Amino acid sequence: MSDPNRRPVSFDSQNIPSVLTELIFRLKIKDVMSRKVITASKTESLRTIQHRMKAENITGVPIVEDKRLLGLVSMHDILTAFDEGTIDEPAERHMTRSLKVLEDDMPLSFAVNYFNKFRFGRFPVLNKDRELSGIITIRDINTTLLREVNRIVESLEDELNRNTPEGQGVNSRQFYIVAYDFENAGRASTEIKKILKGQGLDRETVRRAAVACYELEMNLVVHSTGGKMEFRMDDEKITIRSSDSGPGIPDVDKALEEGFSTANEWIRSLGFGAGMGLPNVKRVSDDFTLVSEPGRGTDARAVIRRPSAL
Amino acid sequence: MHFPEICRALNCKEYNRGKDFSDVDVRNVTAGDLMSEVLVFDLEKMLLVTSLNSEQVLRTADMVDAVGVVLVNEKEPTQAMKILAGDMGITLLNTAQSMFEACAILHSLLNGDR
Q: B36–A207: do the CB atoms touch at under 8 Å?
């Protein structure tokens, strides 16, 4: 069942961020594994199993009898069977019997070590009664770690927002924007607009702030390596600031010209990159500053005065 | 013009009915696929006509307080778009008409209404 071409996973616990190390030790294999396991019985032919693998889009099928794990048929076994003309023979004759298995109560670090040590694509997982309770792949680990890291980042962001000092009549929020994340692009602006609307501001002011915010946010998604949106409102004005750490704008004056764009076709096909972004922000703002340096990053600040303060 | 008339004239499929679906008086139409251009116009009670089916269409519509979005060329909105339209209270429609045809029909509807 080994895939000799598979490269070892680069989960080197010495060189990964501590947040991941902590997760790998805190999570148990049962939190990560797939519980729905596609299995086969020992009497089924390798051909039937191969069809099942194709239909379910999987690369290994545990052979099970009364919840007991007898062996495993992997893609490798199937290829060998085709080669040797044994594809119509029952699984029990050709399955891999000496299996490396994990237990569902073990910390995830055990699975990571196994993937590093043995070049297998998956490991069957047994419960304390030695019954097959799941199967774990690198994909399961990646998905869970990403989800958990997202959760941690979200709670850190919440904490940051709570810790921002809030004076009388001051409303402020921060959002972290991920480069090329088109699915969430614009979410910060939608939130900020909701806050402004909730403050009972007039339609025109809300619209101007929303447009400035949205264009700056889209710029972070499309052009930067990721950055931060800050929104702050006091009795006099609304300030929207976007900052990123790269790559920076080579010619700021040029970037402020209508129709000038460095966006590629792919970005244009998503409805952006018309060269209107920064000019739009400037147009709707009472005060707009843009500071940028190639290799360092960009800092943009748009101020919209509240009508009562004009 | 009102959404029920628009739906009849363009033979629209409805994916979301915004607030005041029947009562809101649509007074302006902006057509295009470049969202930054859409953001330039400050038009009240606006309908956005586009052939782009991405979530950014709805986010853009929300930023400019548009009351509805019509997708032309029978473009199907994504699931995420339908959810966003519901959250934002924006009417979401599609039509088999081309951008040109849809605009022509809306233009005469808007003028006849005036």
A: no
Helix (H, G, I), strand (E, B) or coil at A82: helix
**Taking the complete model, does pTM exceed 0.80, yes or no?**
no
Strand-strand pairing, A237-244 and A227-233? antiparallel
Strands of the sheet containing A227-233, edge to edge, are: A171-177, A227-233, A237-244, A297-305, A287-293
What residues 49-108 of chain B have any CB closer than 8 A to a CB of chain A?
A: 50, 52, 54-57, 59-60, 62-65, 80, 88
Residue-wise pLDDT tens for chain A (310 aa)? 444 444 444 555 456 677 788 888 888 999 999 999 999 999 999 999 999 999 998 989 999 999 899 999 999 999 999 999 999 999 999 999 989 999 999 989 899 999 988 888 899 999 999 999 999 999 999 999 998 888 888 888 777 766 655 555 568 888 888 888 887 889 999 999 999 988 888 989 999 999 999 999 999 988 888 889 999 998 899 999 999 887 888 888 888 888 888 887 777 777 787 778 888 999 999 999 999 888 888 999 999 999 875 5
- Cβ-contact A72, A95 below 8 angstroms: yes
Q: Does B31 touch chain A (CB under 8 A)?
A: no
Contact at CB, A190 and B34, closer than 8 angstroms: no
Closest chain B C-alpha to A276 CA, distance in angstroms? 6
Chain B residue closest to A284 (CA)? B40
Predicted-complex ipTM score: 0.87
